[in-house]
Design goal:
The protein is mainly alpha-helical. The protein has seven helices and no strands.
Length: 150
């Protein structure tokens, strides 16, 4: 199957799949603990989501948008607690997100930050969501693992 059989300019049915695919990449990196990569993935996701699915960004009706924002809020809340050296970087990310942060993420991040002050609670939540260690893409080496047939 060639590219022309999948992608046709103007084919509305395929447009939504573009942003959905970026959300899947974001989620994969999130689960792998590759949170720095996930931040880049989110940027691509939100650009494609706004471009190809211009309807309102609504967490109630769009489950992919909701799940992606919840995972992103987890990254933004947990990263400064796990690795305080990245606090300034995370604050920069929040500012870069602009209206998306203030309208959709700020309340979630604040709630998680308060909840994560209990380090055991944070550890329990993070371990339950990840297949690898958090921030696994920081440093000189990155190990990528796959769960097959699980």
């Amino acid at each position: 199957m060639g590219i022309n059989s999948f992608w046709r300019p103007g084919d509305q049915a395929t447009f939504k799949r573009i942003s959905d695919s970026y959300a899947m990449v974001f989620h994969a990196d999130f689960q792998q603990g590759a949170w720095m990569s996930a931040l880049d993935d989110f940027e691509q996701y939100i650009k494609a989501r706004i471009e190809f699915k211009p309807d309102d960004l609504d967490m109630e009706s769009d489950s992919i948008f909701r799940k992606t924002l919840l995972d992103l809020a987890g990254i933004l809340a947990a990263t400064p607690l796990i690795k305080p050296d990245l606090t300034v970087f995370i604050e920069y990310q929040k500012k870069t997100l602009g209206w998306l942060y203030t309208d959709h993420l700020e309340v979630l991040v604040n709630e998680l930050t308060a909840k994560f002050e209990d380090r055991e609670m944070m550890k329990k939540v993070i371990v339950g969501k990840l297949t690898s260690t958090s921030l696994s893409d920081i440093g000189t080496e990155r190990t990528i693992t796959f769960n097959v047939l699980t």
